[in-house]
Amino acid sequence: MRIAIGLYEHFTSLDVMGPFQVLSGLPNAQVTFVAEKAGPVTDDSGFLTVTAQASFDDLPDPDILLVGGGIITGTLIPHHPIIPWIARAHPTTTWTTSVCTGALLLAGPRLLNGVEATTHWGARDELARLGAIPVRARVVQRGKIVTGAGVSAGIDMALTLAAAIAGPEYAQTLQLMMEYDPAPPFD
Catalytic amino acids? Predict the structure, then answer.
């Protein structure tokens, strides 16, 4: 199972690292970070650099496509190379997924036209302007498109996806091994 996590400069690290932790634990998972070109890509803090092992052209047809968000995500539409990569890959994916404002990237090539999806609460209006139907939920699955709300919801999205792929017990085992049991200090 080829899992491509799309990166771009100034992505939000937890948007992709949370799901990476979960999805890399799936049976036969081959997770590849991809970007416009192979090499280092820096997150929105400016302190974390992730190495993209491949370019968008190197992995045009992943089984699972995942894109995270970032503060600048809306500015990538429609001209950043990640948009045509999503448009080309989606028809052959088993799952097309996003976390946080990554949903805007799925909406960019019109994948979410008239489709219910979630994103960070601060980007719901923008998601609607791009043709999606924003839903207030941690995870929304509509067909093969699965969207996660803001940042930490990427773990929930990935666990939901893991349950669909490998079964609920397998996903529960991944959740247990991660000791994922949110209890935020503030409400």
Answer: 100
